Amino acid sequence: MLGVGVPAFAQDTTTMTPAPRSTLSGVFTTEQASRGRNQFLGQCKSCHAPESQTGANFARLWGGKPLLDFFKFVSEKMPENDPGTLAPETNIDIIAYVLQLNAMPTGSTELAADTTALRETRIELKDQPTKSDTTSLLGVVGRRPSRGLPIDPRFAAPRVAPRR
Ligand code: HEC
């Protein structure tokens, strides 16, 4: 499981040219997010609580990245038991839902599964994550300064073997 690589995470996106738009400019619609919600509940929730895609965890994974990184990750690596099987339209709706979960504003145009547009849309966070977010959402994982991809505690192998 840990072997599933996420090369995009290693990429330094801070040096990229500034994006003309961000997730704070209303890049998806309410309707789209509610379709995405249904999909998330059906396709993702068995492994991810919606809350796990928010707050400090979301910020650390995706903050400042092009929306394309998030879309590609979900499209190519998820659902983890059957990666790459969902239609682009489904994945983009799910992305819209996760943006909504993160308090991003809705707009009048749906987010499209368009690689170029997604690359030019930066994931900009509404609020900086606070300590209490971290604690309530991630429990023990949130308190450990983690490097790289945080693993949902339910999927992580026990880190500390009981010593006797
Ligand atoms: C069968 C279980 C399973 C399903 C279903 C699943 N995932 Fe995952 N997901 C995982 C595991 C395990 C990881 C961590 C390992 C990795 O990065 O591949 C992960 C990691 C992620 C990550 C990055 C790390 C994180 O915690 O945010 C995202 C984003 C994600 N999944 C989104 C989705 C979405 C969206 C769906 C539904 C389309 C989905 N997953 C369905 C098991 C699953």
Layout of SSEs?
Blueprint: H1 7-10, E1 21-22, H2 30-43, H3 55-62, H4 67-77, H5 88-101, H6 115-119, E2 121-122, H7 131-138, H8 140-143
Parallel strand pairs: 1-2
Helix pairs in contact: 2-5, 4-5
Short structural summary:
The chain is mainly α and 164 residues long. The chain has helices at residues 7-10, 30-43, 55-62, 67-77, 88-101, 115-119, 131-138, 140-143; strands at 21-22, 121-122. Helix 2 (30-43) packs across helix 5 (88-101).
Observed structural traits:
mainly alpha, 164 residues, 8 helices, 41% helix, two-stranded parallel sheet, globular, binds heme C
What do these coordinates show?
With 164 residues, this protein is mainly α. The protein has a domain of 91 residues. It is 41% helix and 2% strand. Strands 1-2 form a two-stranded parallel ribbon. The longest helix is centred in the first third of the chain and has 14 residues. Bound molecules: heme C. Heme C (HEC) binds next to helix 4. The site of heme C (HEC) has 24 residues, from helix 4.
Average pLDDT over all residues: 81
**Shape descriptor:** globular
Number of strands: 2
Radius of gyration: 16 Å
* Spans of at least 5 consecutive residues with low confidence: 129-146
Helix run count: 8
Helix amount, in percent? 40-55%
The helix/strand class is mainly alpha
Topology pattern, helix = H, strand = E: HEHHHHHEHH
First-to-last CA distance:
29 Å
Reported for the largest beta sheet, the result is:
2 strands, parallel
Small molecules bound: heme C
Name the strands of the widest sheet in spatial order.
1-2
Q: Hey, roughly how much beta strand do the residues contain?
A: under 5%
